[in-house]
Amino acid sequence: MSLHQSLSRVPLRAARWSATHPWRAIGAWMAFVILAVGLAVAIPTKSTTDADYGVGDSGKAAALVRGAGMEALPTEDVLVRARAGAALDATAAKAAAEDVATKMRALPRVHEASVQLSPKGSAYLVDIQLARGTDNVDALQKVTDAAQKAHPDLRISQAGDVSLDNGVNDRVGEDLSSAEGISLPITLLLMLLAFGALIAAGIPVLIAASSVAATIGITAPLSHLVHAEPTVSSMIVLIGMAVGVDYSLFYLKREREERARGRSTVDAVEIAAQTSGHSIVLSGLAVVAAMTGLYVVGGATFNSLATGSILVVAIAVLGSITVLPALLARLGRWVDRPRLPLLWRLNRRIGQGGISKRLLGPVVRHPKAALGIGAAVVVALSLPTLGMKVHEGNLKTLPADIPQVQTFRAMSAAFPSQNEGADVVVKAPAGQQQQVRSELEQLAAAATRTRDFVPEDGQLVQVSRDGTVSVLHLRTAYADSDPRLDGAVQHLREDLVPANVHGSTAYVGGSAAESLDSADHLREYLPIVVGFVLLLTLLTMGASFRSPIVAGLSALLNLGSVGVAFGLMTLVFQHGWFAGALDFTSPGFVIDWLPMFVLVVLIGLSMDYQVFVLSRIREHVRSGLPSRLAVARGIQDTAGVVTSAAAVMVSVFAIFATLSMLEMKMMGVGLSAAILVDATLVRLVLLPAALILIGDRAWGRKDTAPAGERVTETEPAYQLV
Fold it and tell me: Which of 238, 348, 459, 515 could form a disulfide with 392, with the two C-beta atoms 3.0–4.6 Å apart?
């Protein structure tokens, strides 16, 4: 039995059983969702740790440091400076700083608090070392707030490892809550526009939301195998709502279409299962195939996101071919109640394909011109990708209105010693400890002479208890947003360390090196993942449609959509186009993990449309229509559904473009713009034009008419407007 036949039977059998046993199917789904949510309550989620993120030489350095028990303690800093426009009262500032340090030392989990004056005498800094594992600095913040009240003529603020993470996490949580709160009513409104009836509009949202809830519950026990990245829940919501609504929309639209033709409810459900249900299973496989590309990259972030995404897609497919048919069978024609008169009439008008006919008519008449113009637009939008620069997010990419970010930026300007650090970690036998120390001290002097690094006070070299691991702490002369920082790390790694450290294993780690290694790792794997995902797309589509031509065309169109996404992200965020309208300052690069993320999400979601449209075209081909008529009819039949599905995703992603976190803006702009182009230019112009020009060969038949022959109004199968 072929893959196509196997996949055709799965949704049909599931739909038949669910339609004839609706209460059992609905009850089983509810029990599944409740049980899954209960797992999240009973089993705590295991989150990722720093040990999960290391890559390259910095990852090896961090592993050596952890193994030797030499990890740096978390720190918090309190900055004491003058009010804007005023001169610093050095006496008052010093007294305030020393008072803060004294009170901090008295707090539990505080190891030490020291005071230092900036090189230019413009600020004082209270450097506070905390006990390992400290994740709550509320007590420290209260001391800082009290000091600010006691010294209103000064600016006293706090930032550090813990407080910055808390501030950023709070902002991310606020942004995501805002996006979710807005996206749900927008999704429901768009479903009302698509169906014109309240129950029909609510069903896709209900199926999608329950799929998301079940997935989040199941990821709790799974996190003990694949540690959960903090953003995985947001990814699950994003992908789950998108595919869940899409799948239900495809199925429900086809069921209503068959009932409108006079079919009984059960017959309509079965036909929807054979057609849209089959497309949903194929689409789910294609999305899963795309998401597996994240495993190729490896690392905690992408492994976690891949696991969550694959799981939510699988559950959304399961809900769409089981509980959805049960609901439709139980509701019958009540699914179209209560009708909203205005929206119902508007829906019926749009459902006739008037808009798509006007765009599709010229494409069918002039496929060569349509293909040439459409391809030129895609290539033009994709060209900026060739100059795309990627880099890890830093202080420059964080919202400036987060108090801790403001403090960190001021600290970096006043205290160069607080800039990014680089650690040279050496593994050598204990007997070579003195030689290694001498070499590292020579290295520190050589690094300082380059002016890329600044001298540090205190002990430069630390040695593990067993004497086998030595660590040289260096501080760069550049802030984390300075483009010269990467060059300094590379010079240290490629020239200074080999010239000064001999006969021992040495790695350059620390925050500056971690940022460089992360960007290099993702830059190296991006073309590999592109090739891997496109290969899986070829195999999946080829096995499903049994046409190498259709598979190749699908991969090529997906590559075009990805190129558009990357090109627009480069123009907007690297070159600053529309920065004022979107309320951000260009960092001069694209945040490193986003191209990979956008790639797999976009290909996965665009495959929904691809599979749905191609499946309908193939239906018409098998019914005996000539290829070009089948293409025209198939595109027209599916245009309304694809438009509705794309409108949901474009609207949701566009909301992310309005949020304060630059990462979310990049994701929102890249995905919303690319999906808009994919659902219009790609699916309504490039796809039909290419299929018409290829002709019946795309479906394994001999040409029945010249590919470029015009469709005339005398052909009843398709009337041009």
Answer: 515
Q: What is the 3-state secondary structure (H, E, C) of 242-285?
A: HHHHHHHHHHHHHHHHHHHCCCCHHHHHHHHHHHHHHHHHHHHH
Question: Where are the alpha helices (H) located in 261-366, listed in sequence order?
Answer: 265-272, 278-291, 293-297, 300-321, 323-331, 341-351, 354-365
Give the DSSP H/E element, type plus range, for residue 705. none
Q: What is the set of domains in the chain, with CATH numbers?
A: 1-42+196-351 (1.20.1640.10), 354-382+565-583+601-721 (no CATH), 410-516 (3.30.70.100)
CA atoms of 1 and 45, how far apart (whole Å): 41
Taking the C-alpha atoms of residue 444 and residue 471, their distance in angstroms, rounded to an integer, is 11
How many residues are given for the chain? 721
63 vs 66: CA distance, rounded Å: 5
Cα angle 651, 656, 662 (rounded to 5 degrees) comes to 150
pLDDT in tens, 460-498: 788 998 889 999 988 888 877 778 888 999 999 999 999
The CA-based dihedral angle spanning residues 373, 378, 380, 386, taken in that order and rounded to the nearest 10 degrees: -150
**Tens-place pLDDT, residues 278-323:** 888 888 888 888 888 888 888 888 888 899 999 999 999 999 999 9
Per DSSP (E only), the strands in 45-85 are 75-82
- What's the rounded Cα separation, in Å, for the pair 299 and 304? 8
User: Where are the extended beta strands (E) located within 359-458?
Assistant: 390-391, 421-427, 453-454
Is there a cis peptide before residue 338, judged by omega within 30 degrees of 0? Answer: yes
CA 500, chain centre distance (Å): 42
Quote the DSSP letter at residue 480: T
- Residue 110 is given by DSSP the state E
- Select from 15, 112, 123 the least CA-distant residue to 413: 123
For residues 688 and 710, what is the distance between their CA atoms, to the nearest angstrom? 13
Single pTM value for the model: 0.83
The stretch 384-393 carries a mean pLDDT of 90
Phi, psi (deg, nearest 5) at residue 114 = -125, 155
Reduced 3-state DSSP string for 529-545: HHHHHHHHHHHHHHHHH
Amino acid residing at 212? V
H or E stretch at 566: helix 548-569
Query: Which one, of 292, 297, 233, lies nearest residue 47 by Cα?
Result: 233
Residue in 517, 511, 435, 422 with CA at minimum distance from that of residue 468: 435
